Amino acid sequence: MTKLVDAVASGWGPRRDITIRPRYHLASRSRFQSKAGIVQRPSVLNERGRMPPPTKVELLPHDPDWSHLANAEARLLTGALGPNLRIVHHVGSTAIPSIRAKPILDLMPVVSNLAELDKCQAKIKALGYEWWGELGLPGRRYCTKSDPKTGHRTAQLHCYEDGSTDITRHLAFRDYLRAHPELAAEYDRVKAECQRRHPGDSHAYGDCKEAWIRNAEADALEWYQA
Fold first, then answer.
1. 205 has a pLDDT exceeding 90
2. What pLDDT is attached to residue 5?
């Protein structure tokens, strides 16, 4: 039976510690912004030639209910996708208890066959999701869900085929911050500063955090795979 994993997976626990290097660094300019100030995003349009619009950046203290909501969403996905769905991981900031987060669940469904998942677009849409395809990341299927009454985004799916290296990347980052509160606190400060700079643009907010995340991911992968 498909389950949602919200803890360190069996056998993948901390093996050793490594020195945490302070990396509180924010890009002064978006990595997609030219000196002329024109944002030049990479081609991340999906098959229909559009991408999700930016949203307001709201950071809230950790809510224990996020875990319960993630499990509920995983049960819906299990019913819709059947045996092709191997597991659903709760990732992202709402899965890290010590930091603030946007109230949007990041879920990572892992499937046996990505082509079979593509055939289930109608079933995923029936759960209230929009389908965005790869959206710039080969091997991923990205979907978003919003509250029909308020229009506020509530969940995001980052779907991968079993064996994708991106699965390890997401889990390593989550578990590394869970295991290192001081680094999680640093990330929380980065998030707060990026929200201050870009309160109404989630795309720019994400760009602002990216250099810090990439540096942390490198250490996280080393720690996770040791």
1. yes
2. 54
